[in-house]
Fold this protein.
Amino acid sequence: MKILVTGGAGYIGSTTAKALEEAGHTPVILDSLLSGPRAFVRDRIFYEGDIADRPLLRQIVAEHPDIDATIHMAARIVVPESMEQPYVYYRDNVAKSLELFDELVALGKPRVLFSSSASLYAFTEAFVVREEDALDPTSPYARTKRMMEQVLEDMARATELRAVILRYFNPIGSDPDLESGVYVREPSHVLGQLVLAATGLKDEFTITGTNHPTRDGTGLRDYIHVWDLAQAHVRAVERFDEVLNAVHAPSVVINIGTGEGVTVRELVSSFERVFGATVPVSEAPPRPGDAVGAYANADKAAGLLGWKANLTLDDGIASALAWSKRRHEVLGE
Ligand SMILES: NC(=O)c1ccc[n+]([C@@H]2O[C@H](COP(=O)([O-])OP(=O)(O)OC[C@H]3O[C@@H](n4cnc5c(N)ncnc54)[C@H](O)[C@@H]3O)[C@@H](O)[C@H]2O)c1
């Protein structure tokens, strides 16, 4: 199959492009390089441009009339930045995606897989979330994701568009050959901060929030290896029509997580075990907007996609550590 991957120069997009290739498919990348590095495009079919550039979309489809589906990953993704610059987030994530979807329908390319996020879920004392559970997106970034889910659901009802919406939990690690990974120099997510502290690029790792209603007071996440996440996309494009037929609907939402919740303290101890040394740790109050967290009920992914996560938390940690050693080489920094 030939798959248009918007945001294919990004962390998850480039890993998914590789997984598609390994499964015998051909990714066609559309990315503006707003944040993704050119090095992650490698030798793939690549169009440098914006998702809302309709003439460019027409050119891509004219040059690749055999595109079977689009994986729409291109987005701005930094939560604090979305609080400071809501306009650019709503413009880029919502308004530009609308142009993309409308043009894809006009071009007769109605299958869309959309990258949504577990950050949409409302807090629940059970911590485990199913797709139909209550939502409460707390940042402009998360609200753009929810709006796009609603846009897709409405367009799927009214037009030829068909949507498979994947709600990702917390991706970690790199692809097996360490060709792509988290490319920002100072990642803000927990594992990235741990790697910085372990490799001496930061003095210590700070646990932000120790009074959450979790088993040890620290935030809880469902860490999914990015290679497993990439495989979920391969399954979703391969089974696209089958999945929607099975649910008798023009769109569907599917959690993509491991089904296991891990607290920050648990992550630190796993990290120290894999790393083979302790990491200096301090504690601080939660940052504004920090979520307590949740983990996925991943039954729907198993049933509809025949997919479940295979790699362990330790695999993800080892992969992130290995990538941190190779990162500068791949990025040419
Ligand atoms: N990383 C996570 O923890 C996480 C969790 C849940 C969901 N997601 C979603 O997954 C997707 C991929 O995330 P990522 O971590 O790989 O992010 P990323 O920033 O590495 O990748 C996004 C890519 O989109 C490109 N892009 C942005 N705006 C564009 C535009 N208007 N036109 C063309 N290209 C554009 C960027 O250059 C970048 O390469 C995003 O939609 C994100 O919201 C990510």
Remarks:
- The first helix runs from residue 11 to 22.
- The pocket of nicotinamide-adenine-dinucleotide is lined by residues 6-7, 9-13, 31-36, 50-51, 73-77, 92, 96, 115, 117, 168, 170-171 (CB under 6 Å).
